[in-house]
Amino acid sequence: MNRATERPVFRQRGSIRTDLHAIAMASETPKGGKSAVVKLRVPFHDLDPLHVVWHGNYLKYFDIARFALFEEAGIDLYRYTLDRQIIFPITRFSMKNIVALRHNDLFTCRAVATEARYKIAMDFDIRRDSDGAVCARAKSEQLAVKLPDMEMQFEIPADICSALGFGHGA
Known about the structure:
Layout: E1 24-28, E2 34-41, H1 55-72, H2 77-84, E3 86-87, E4 90-97, E5 106-116, E6 120-128, E7 134-142, E8 145-146, E9 151-152, H3 158-163
Antiparallel strand pairs: 1-2, 2-5, 3-8, 4-7, 5-6, 6-7, 8-9
């Protein structure tokens, strides 16, 4: 709880909204971390001149899944930043495009938390719903940074580790 406002930093499960045609579902992964799946449809404004999804929009899709995972785990990163003065910038990201998505394609984007001790690591994949084709895969890492001095923390806070499905020290 934030003592000044008495509002919890973590939200209750199940509060995910259906923004951008997204429907999210969270679950435990075999590795012990949480996962979330969002269903999306490619809008016209995400296309490039070749009428396929512009490569930068895949990052947007991965971020939608990332934030669905945090929300379903009960983590409100905005409130956490305000209350605890800790931010979680993405420090590493890699992506492989495999099959292009096109206008109006329905697809599923999955985010899986794979680590949450020294960094928050996630794996992502995008699959086209019509045929199950894997369209893109990605990995990301986030670190904890204390504000206002931008001091890197060498562990992810225990409450975040636990919410993502990893006991502190796991």
